[in-house]
Amino acid sequence: MITSPARNKWVTAMARYIVALVLLAIFAGPAFAQQKKEDTPMQADEKRKKAEAEKIDKQYDAIMRKNSDTSAAPVRSDPWQNMRGADDSKNKR
Fold this sequence. Notes:
It is a single chain. By secondary structure, this protein is mostly helical. It has a domain at 7-33 and 40-68. It is 63% helix and 0% strand. The radius of gyration is 41 Å and the shape is rod-shaped. It starts with a helix and ends in a 23-residue tail after the last helix.
């Protein structure tokens, strides 16, 4: 089959454009891959839950510090205090 020179030039030019586009895509791909992607809804929900858990932990720690400072010595209670007589002692057995 005989091809005309004009058709041959068109095919050569089109091949060059295709090769140039492929090379551009190859070089531009890693640059676009480095961009920060937005979080998916699951990732955003996970971050929100983590922030809430940290907030609750901080509140808990603050309350525990406050309570531990106010009660230096624990108060002992004797549940059988009213059941014993007046002269019961540990020495009698």
